[in-house]
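Re: that backbone. Tokens:
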């Protein structure tokens, strides 16, 4: 393969990989608030279940 052709293909592939990496970085940054909302939601569900579960009367005596 001609060295100039090889170098041109390498530059195209490198540019493609850089674009994919940047897209991945942006996607992981925007996913973070969803993770916080999800954790908060599950914490509220757990709290609600604890409040809805009847307590044992043996502990009250």
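Recovered sequence:
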């Amino acid at each position: 393969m001609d060295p100039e052709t090889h170098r041109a293909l390498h530059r195209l592939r490198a540019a493609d990989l850089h674009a994919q990496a940047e897209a991945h970085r942006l996607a992981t940054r925007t996913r973070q608030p969803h993770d916080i909302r999800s954790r908060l939601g599950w914490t509220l569900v757990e709290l609600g279940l604890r409040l809805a579960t009847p307590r044992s009367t043996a502990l009250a005596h």
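The first helix runs from residue 3 to 52. The radius of gyration is 27 Å.
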